[in-house]
Design a protein that fits this description.
The complex is a heterodimer of chains A (about 500) and B (about 525).
Chain A: H1 2-11, H2 13-32, H3 39-56, E1 62-64, E2 69-71, H4 73-95, H5 106-125, H6 129-147, H7 154-185, H8 190-199, H9 204-221, H10 230-237, H11 240-265, H12 271-275, H13 286-305, H14 311-331, H15 335-366, H16 377-380, H17 382-396, H18 402-416, H19 420-445, H20 460-478, H21 481-489
Antiparallel strand pairs in A: 1-2
Helix pairs in contact in A: 2-3, 2-5, 3-4, 3-5, 4-5, 4-11, 4-15, 5-6, 5-11, 6-7, 6-11, 7-9, 7-10, 10-11, 10-14, 11-14, 11-15, 13-14, 13-19, 14-15, 14-18, 14-19, 15-17, 15-18, 15-20, 15-21, 17-19, 17-20, 18-20
Chain B: E1 4-5, E2 8-9, H1 10-27, H2 33-57, E3 72-82, E4 90-99, H3 104-120, H4 128-147, H5 151-160, H6 162-172, H7 177-205, E5 207-209, E6 215-218, H8 221-224, H9 242-258, H10 267-274, H11 277-302, H12 304-309, H13 311-331, H14 335-355, H15 359-390, H16 401-404, H17 406-420, H18 426-441, H19 443-468, H20 484-502, H21 505-523
Parallel strand pairs in B: 4-6
Antiparallel strand pairs in B: 1-2, 3-4, 5-6
Chain lengths: ~500, ~525
C-alpha cells in the first residue's frame, strides 16, 4: 500500500508542481506587495516546470491513488493542451489593461488561475465519480471569482453573479445524476459503474434519469444549447483574459471529462480496442440525445451569432457553436470521432485564443468591444487586421488554415460513421457562420477609417504573442500530420 | 514527361511563382508603387513564358484523365502521411500535380489572362501593395486548381481563391461593392462546403492497395475514378445508387455555382458590375472556367453513372442559361452588366456541349472555355477603357465612338463579333462544335438553344449600334484613343481570337486525345 502511494505521488508530480506554484504565488504576492504584477513570472515559471513534468508522462498508462486518477495518453494530451492555454492566458493577462481596475489584488488573480488549471488537470484524469465532481467544483468556484475579478465594473460583477447561479444549478444536476448512478450501480469509480451496467441493472428508469442529469450537468460546462444561456452574458462581462480561458480551456477540460466518463462507463468493454467503434451498454442511447443537442447547438448558436453587435458576444456564440461541432465526435461512438474531437479542440484553442487576444488588444487601445468600432482597423493597423482576419477565417473553417483541418476531421469522422443528417446540418451552419465572421473582416478592411483615426501601434511583446498564435494556425493548416498522429495515439485510455 | 528547373518541377514553378511575387510585393515599401507593379508583371510574365513552354512541348497523343502514366509534367510527393493505428488505416495526402489535354489550354489561358490583368491594373492607385499581393495569391489559387490531381490539393486551391477575390471586389470595387463581395463569397462558400462533404464521402469510400498490400484511403482523383478501389459497403460503393446521385448533385451544384449555371447565377452580374476591370477580366476569363473544368476533371469521370443519369438535367440547365442569359443581356442598359449576362449565356453553351458526352461536344466545350476566356476578357477591357475615360458605362451614354476612337473601335469589333459567333473568329468554331455535339445527343434541346445565337446577335448588334455608331455627343469629342499600354493588352488577345477563328486545329489537337478518352471512359461506365 505504501509503495502504491509513493508510486502514485511520483506519477502525480505535475499536479503537485501546480500546487507548489499556487502556494508560491501567494507567498510572492505577500512579498512583492506593490510590485505584485510580477507574480505572473512566478506562475509562468511554475507552469513551465509543470510542462516538463507532463511531457515526461508521455507513454504512461497507469491508474493512481486506488483508481482515483488515470495517467494515460488521453489525460496527457489534454494536460498539454491546457498548459498551453494557461501559459497564453498568463501572457495575455500581463498585457491586459482591463485587469488594472483591480490592480492591488492581481496576485490573487494569478493564484486563482493556477488553481483553475489544477482543477482542470484533475478533471481530465479523474476516474472516480466523486473526484470528478470535486474537480468540476474546484474549477467552477475559482472561475466564478475570476469572472468577477474586475468587480468594480458593473458588468463584471453581474457576470460573476450569473455564473454562480447557473453554475450552481449545473453542479446540482451533476451531483444528483452521480448520486443516482452510484445508488444504481453501487460503485463510485467509473470502472465499477461499467461492470455493473454491463451486468444489467434493474432500475432502468432511474438509470435514464441519472444519464440525462449527468448530460445536463456537463452541458452547462461545455455550453451546449439549451444550457448555454449563461455563456454570452458571462463571456461578455468577464475580463477578456478570463473569457478566453472559459471559452477554451474550461470547455476543453469539460469535454475531456465527459468523453472519459461516457467512453468508459457506458460502453461494452472489449468492443473498443479492436475495431475502434464501440457498442453501447444495453438500454441507454445517450448518443442520440447528444446528436440532437449537437445539431441544436450548431444551428441555434450560429443563427444567434448573426445578430450580435458586441465582439465578445459574437465570439461567445461562435464558441458555443464550436462546442456543437466538437460534440459531434462523441455521438459517433468511435475512436475516430474522439480523435477528431481532440484535433478540433487543440486547433480551436489557438484560433479562438488568437481572436480573443486581438479583441483584448483592441479594447486596450481603443477602449471598445463594438464590432462597428472595428471599422477601418485593417488600415489603421494592417498587422492586427490581417491577424484577426486569419483567426476569423480559421474559425470559419477556411483552408489553408488549421480550422479547415479541424472541420475536415470532424466532418469526415461523422460521414464515415454514417451520420449524414448531422453532417448536413453542420455544413449548413458552417455557411451561416461565414457570414458573421466575415462581417468583422468587412468592417476591418472594406470600410475606410474616419479621418480622425490615427494608426494603432502595437508593442513588440503583443506582436510576438500574436505571431506565436498565428504560427500554429497557419502551419497546422498545411502540415497537420504531427497533431493528427498525436491525437490518434492519445485516444487510448487506461482501463479500456 | 518531366521538366525541371533547379530541381523543381515546372508546374510547381508555374503555380507558386505568384506566391514568391506576393512575398516580394509585401516586402517592398508602400510608396514604391511602380516597383510593386513591375514585380507583379515580371512574375506573371515569367509564368506565361513557362506556360507557353509547357504547351509547346506538350505531347498531344497522351491520354491523361484516369491514366496516371500518361499525365505530363507529373509531380507526386507524399505530403501528409499518418501511419495506421488499429482502428484506422494509413492516411496519405499527395502533392500530386500533372496536366493532360484537358488542362493544358486552361493553364495557358490562366497565365495569359493573369498577365493581361496586371497590365490592366496599372492605373490602380488605391493601396497598390495590398492589391497586387491579393492578386498574385488569386493567380496561384486559379493555377493550382488546373494542375492539381489530388482532391485535397484541388480543394485547397479552390478555396484559396475566395478570400483574395472577396477583398479585391470589396475594397477596390464600385459603389455596391460590399454587397457584391459578400454575395460572391457566400455563394461560392456554399459550393465549397458541398464539395468538402462529397470529397470526404469519396475519401472514405475509396481505398487502393499499395505494393505492401496495405489498404490506403486516398484523395487521389485518379484512384477515385477506378471502380475497383471502392470499398464494399462504403457509402458511395456500387453504381447508380441513391447516395451516388446525391453526391453527384451536391458536387454538380458546387461547380454550377462557379460556372454559373441558371439558377445559381445571381451572384455573377453583381460581382461583375462592382468589380474593378482587371478583376472582372479574371473573373470572366478564368474563374468561370473552373466550374466547367471541375465538372470534366472531377464530376464526370468519378461519378460517370450519375453523369449519364443526369445528362438531360445538365443539357436543360445549359439551354436555360443560354436563352435566359441572352434575354437578360438584351434588357441591360449597363454595358458591363450586359457582358456579364452574355457570359452566362456563353457558359451555357459550354455546359450544353459537355452534357452531350461525345467527343465533338466536349472538344467544342473546352475550346469554348478557352475562347470565351479570351473574348470576354476583351469585352470587359473594352468597357473598362470607356469607363476609365468617362466614368460612365451605360449603353445609351455613348454613340459615334467609332469616329473618335478608331483603333479602339477596331479592337472592339473583333471582340464583339467573336462573341456573336461570326465565322472566321474563334467563337464560331467552338460554338459550332458544341452545338453539333449536342445535336447528336439531344435534338430538341439543341434546336431551342440555337435560337440563343439569334438573341446574341441581336444584343451585340444593338450595342455596337448604340455605342460605336450614330452621332458623337460633344462631351465625347475629346476622348483619346487607346494608349500603348492598352494596345499591349488587347493585341495578343485579338491575335488569338482571329488565329483560332481561321485555324483552330492546333488548339483542338492539344485536347482531342484526352477528351475522346474522357468521353469513352464516361460512356463505358466503369470498366
Amino acid at each position: 500500500m505504501a509503495e502504491h502511494i509513493v508510486e502514485s505521488i511520483y506519477r502525480f508530480l505535475p499536479e503537485i508542481a501546480l500546487t507548489v506554484t499556487l502556494v508560491a504565488a501567494i507567498v510572492a504576492d505577500l512579498i512583492l506587495k506593490e510590485r505584485n504584477r510580477n507574480v505572473a513570472w512566478v506562475v509562468l515559471g511554475g507552469l513551465a516546470v509543470t510542462a516538463v513534468l507532463v511531457l515526461r508522462q508521455i507513454g504512461w498508462s497507469e491508474s493512481i491513488f486506488s483508481d482515483m486518477i488515470a495517467v494515460d495518453p488521453f489525460a496527457v494530451f489534454f494536460k498539454v493542451v491546457l498548459l498551453v492555454a494557461g501559459l497564453f492566458i498568463v501572457l495575455f493577462s500581463m498585457k491586459s489593461r482591463e485587469l488594472e481596475h483591480n490592480a492591488t489584488r492581481i496576485g490573487e488573480y494569478y493564484m486563482l488561475l493556477t488553481g483553475v488549471i489544477f482543477g482542470m488537470f484533475l478533471m481530465v484524469g479523474a476516474t472516480n465519480l466523486l473526484l470528478m465532481y470535486l474537480a468540476f467544483e474546484l474549477t467552477s468556484i475559482s472561475s466564478y471569482v475570476l469572472a468577477g475579478f474586475t468587480k468594480s465594473l458593473r458588468k463584471s460583477a453581474e457576470a460573476s453573479m450569473k455564473y454562480i447561479i447557473f453554475g450552481a444549478i449545473s453542479s446540482g444536476f451533476l451531483i444528483y445524476g452521480i448520486s443516482l448512478l452510484v445508488g444504481i450501480t453501487g460503485a463510485t469509480d467509473i470502472y465499477g459503474v461499467r461492470d455493473a451496467l454491463q451486468g444489467g441493472v434493474e432500475q432502468q428508469m432511474a438509470l435514464h434519469i441519472a444519464t440525462i442529469m449527468i448530460i445536463v450537468g456537463f452541458s452547462y460546462k461545455i455550453t451546449v444549447v439549451p444550457f448555454h444561456f449563461w455563456a454570452p452574458d458571462v463571456y461578455h462581462g468577464a475580463p477578456v483574459t478570463i473569457t478566453t480561458f472559459l471559452a477554451t480551456a474550461s470547455k476543453i477540460a469539460g469535454f475531456a471529462m465527459m468523453i472519459r466518463f461516457f467512453k468508459i462507463s457506458y460502453v461494452e468493454s472489449g468492443s473498443v480496442v479492436a475495431s475502434g467503434s464501440w457498442e453501447l451498454v444495453e438500454g441507454v442511447q445517450w448518443n442520440v440525445i447528444l446528436a440532437i443537442l449537437a445539431a441544436l447547438t450548431i444551428m441555434a448558436a450560429n443563427l444567434m451569432a448573426l445578430w450580435q453587435e458586441n465582439i465578445k458576444r459574437l465570439l461567445a456564440f461562435s464558441s458555443i457553436a464550436h462546442a456543437g461541432f466538437i460534440l459531434m465526435g462523441l455521438v459517433l461512438l468511435s475512436d475516430e470521432g474522439i480523435s477528431a474531437m481532440m484535433i478540433y479542440m487543440a486547433i480551436y484553442l489557438f484560433m479562438n485564443m488568437g481572436a480573443f487576444y486581438v479583441v483584448m488588444l483592441v479594447s486596450n487601445k481603443l477602449d471598445t468591444e463594438w464590432i462597428s468600432d472595428y471599422e477601418g482597423l485593417g488600415h489603421r493597423s494592417p498587422f492586427l487586421g490581417v491577424a484577426m482576419a486569419i483567426f476569423l477565417v480559421a474559425l470559419a473553417g477556411f483552408p489553408p488554415t488549421a480550422g479547415f483541418i479541424a472541420k475536415v476531421y470532424i466532418f469526415g469522422a461523422t460521414i464515415n460513421a454514417g451520420w449524414i443528417w448531422l453532417v448536413a446540418v453542420a455544413g449548413l451552419a458552417t455557411v451561416i457562420s461565414l457570414y458573421y465572421y466575415v462581417r468583422v473582416v468587412r468592417n476591418m478592411f472594406l470600410v475606410d477609417p474616419a479621418e480622425s483615426d490615427g494608426p494603432v501601434i502595437l508593442d513588440s511583446g503583443s506582436m510576438t504573442i500574436l505571431v506565436l498564435l498565428l504560427i500554429p494556425v497557419l502551419l497546422l493548416g498545411v502540415y497537420f500530420s504531427p497533431i493528427v498522429e498525436w491525437a490518434k495515439h492519445s485516444v487510448t485510455m487506461f482501463g479500456m | 514527361m518531366e521538366f525541371q528547373i533547379f530541381g523543381i518541377g515546372i508546374l510547381t514553378w508555374i503555380v507558386f511563382l505568384p506566391i514568391v511575387g506576393m512575398l516580394i510585393v509585401l516586402l517592398l515599401p508602400n510608396e514604391q508603387k511602380n516597383a510593386i507593379r513591375w514585380t507583379a508583371a515580371t512574375v506573371t510574365g515569367l509564368q506565361l513564358v513557362l506556360a507557353v513552354v509547357v504547351t509547346m512541348i506538350f505531347d498531344r497523343t497522351a491520354l491523361g484523365i484516369n491514366d496516371s502514366n500518361s499525365f505530363q509534367f507529373v509531380e507526386q510527393f507524399r505530403w501528409i502521411v499518418v501511419e495506421a493505428v488499429p482502428w484506422v488505416g494509413k492516411i496519405e495526402i499527395m502533392y500530386f500535380m500533372g496536366i493532360d489535354g484537358l488542362s493544358v489550354l486552361m493553364v495557358l489561358l490562366t497565365a495569359l489572362i493573369s498577365v493581361i490583368g496586371v497590365i490592366s491594373s496599372w492605373n490602380i492607385e488605391k493601396m497598390v501593395k495590398g492589391y497586387f499581393a491579393l492578386y498574385l495569391l488569386l493567380v496561384t489559387g486559379m493555377m493550382g486548381v488546373f494542375v492539381a490531381l489530388d482532391f485535397f490539393l484541388f480543394f485547397i486551391f479552390w478555396e484559396v481563391m475566395l478570400l483574395p477575390m472577396y477583398f479585391l471586389i470589396g475594397i477596390w470595387g464600385g459603389a455596391r461593392r460590399e454587397y457584391a463581395a459578400i454575395k460572391f463569397f457566400i455563394y461560392t462558400f456554399v459550393g465549397g462546403v458541398l464539395m468538402l462533404l462529397v470529397m470526404l464521402a469519396l475519401y472514405f469510400s475509396v481505398a487502393y492497395t499499395n505494393e505492401a498490400g496495405e489498404q490506403i484511403h486516398t484523395f487521389n482523383l485518379l484512384h477515385m475514378m477506378n471502380a475497383a478501389n471502392y470499398v464494399e459497403g462504403s457509402i458511395l460503393y456500387g453504381l447508380d445508387t441513391t447516395w451516388r446521385y446525391v453526391a453527384w448533385l451536391a458536387l454538380f451544384i458546387s461547380f454550377a455555382i462557379k460556372v454559373p449555371l441558371f439558377p445559381f447565377h445571381t451572384w455573377l452580374p453583381d460581382a461583375h458590375v462592382e468589380a474593378p476591370t482587371p478583376i472582372s477580366v479574371i473573373l470572366a476569363g478564368v474563374l468561370l472556367k473552373l466550374g466547367t473544368y471541375g465538372m470534366l476533371r472531377v464530376l464526370f469521370p468519378i461519378l460517370p453513372d450519375a453523369t449519364i443519369f443526369f445528362m438531360y438535367l445538365m443539357a436543360s440547365l445549359g439551354m436555360i442559361s443560354i436563352i435566359y442569359g441572352a434575354l437578360c443581356a438584351m434588357a441591360q442598359q449597363d454595358f458591363k452588366k450586359l457582358i456579364a449576362y452574355s457570359s452566362i449565356s456563353h457558359m451555357g453553351i459550354v455546359m450544353l456541349g459537355m452534357a452531350a458526352l461525345n467527343t465533338q461536344g466536349t472538344v467544342g466545350a473546352v475550346l469554348q472555355m478557352f475562347n470565351h476566356g479570351t473574348i470576354t476578357a476583351m469585352l470587359f477591357l473594352i468597357v473598362g477603357v470607356l469607363y476609365d475615360r468617362t466614368s460612365k458605362r451605360g449603353v445609351y451614354d455613348f454613340g459615334g465612338i467609332a469616329n473618335q476612337m478608331p483603333k479602339y473601335t477596331g479592337i472592339a469589333m473583333v471582340a464583339m463579333f467573336a462573341a456573336l459567333g461570326l465565322p472566321g473568329l474563334s467563337g464560331f468554331v467552338s460554338e459550332l462544335f458544341s452545338f453539333l455535339g449536342a445535336f447528336d445527343s439531344f435534338r430538341w434541346i439543341t434546336i431551342i438553344s440555337v435560337t440563343g445565337i439569334v438573341l446574341t446577335a441581336a444584343y451585340i448588334l444593338w450595342t455596337v449600334q448604340r455605342v460605336f455608331l450614330g452621332s458623337l455627343s460633344d462631351v465625347h469629342k475629346t476622348l483619346p484613343d487607346l494608349t500603348g499600354r492598352e494596345l499591349l493588352m488587347f493585341i495578343p488577345l485579338a491575335i488569338i481570337v482571329i488565329f483560332l477563328g481561321v485555324y483552330p486545329a492546333p488548339a483542338i489537337e492539344l485536347m482531342n486525345a484526352s477528351l475522346s478518352h474522357l468521353v469513352d471512359f464516361v460512356n463505358g461506365g466503369m470498366p
